[in-house]
Write the structure tokens for this entry.
Amino acid sequence: MSATTALHLAAEIGGPPQYDARHYVELARLAERGALDFVTLGDSFARPGLDALAVLSRVAPATRRIGLVPTVTTTYTEPFHVSSAVATLDWVSCGRAGWNAEVSTTEAEARLFGRRSAAPAAELWREAGETADVSARLWDSWEDGAEIRDVATGRFIDRDKLHHVDFEGATFTVRGPAIVPRPPQGHPVTVIDGTGGASQEAAARHADVVLVRATAPEQAAGIRADVRRRAAAYGRHPDSLRVLVALTVDLGDAETAPEPGLESGPPLAAGGSYYRGGPVDLAELIARWHRAGAVDGFHLTPITPERDLERIVNGTVALLQHRSLFRTFYPGGTLREHLGLARPANRYALAEGRA
């Protein structure tokens, strides 16, 4: 990766449960003022709180450019519902949606649904990969232009442009077609944490954005190269995905020097990399890693969202923008455009020579 490749930045806006939508709207707007590619909102059946996808559907009309990426757990959610909900978010946000695929591994989460016992992570990630696969097929099941809305003839849909997906996975089958027309982006952006273990293959095969964890640029570069190699093995072009380092940041004391090495921070529940220091030093770290070709960008999780996101946007991002290392405005309107990713061709139109 050359040093002139665009830098991509994203931020998590979750934290302790909040039950007022204005909290999330304000954080998303703050991130948008910094021209960040997207914000994520974490979710899990293992904790109390609002549904992330529903919250970001509320945030969508209150923002204009920022990408919106909720965590969606695939383990106990029907794939058809996942596809429909994420497509709906893409429509209501005018093409700014993504989804962060996650799985539920604990017996406590399994008991919430009572349908099956907890399964090994490898099995759950295979299912998550199949959910990502069938979601993409469902998004393609309506070709562009399938809606004709011809009042004179009474035709609403061109049936030749609607397709059954007829997907059969290990734990589910889906006939299709979708009930939601093809999303504005074609496929909303799929995000998967592919640091290691069971999620690696799903990330390499299906993700547009892969989150990884590293404590040094050399380590990050090695992980990025491995992700791209795995993607190529699945017939994907390595440039069709973005690899972002996931970094939890604590900017509580802007005058405190960063710890000597990310690994020196306190252990985190998610096992992530940790940075403590000031906004200026964080900007230096981001610039150094990106110039070294180690990463496509960073996904930053503020320890205290209200405090640290403000310091990220008005301190770290402002400095990167001042040095012409990060954009000052959005050149396009969709999340795929922010990330420099093409709108996927429709597989069914291609097969029938209409693309």
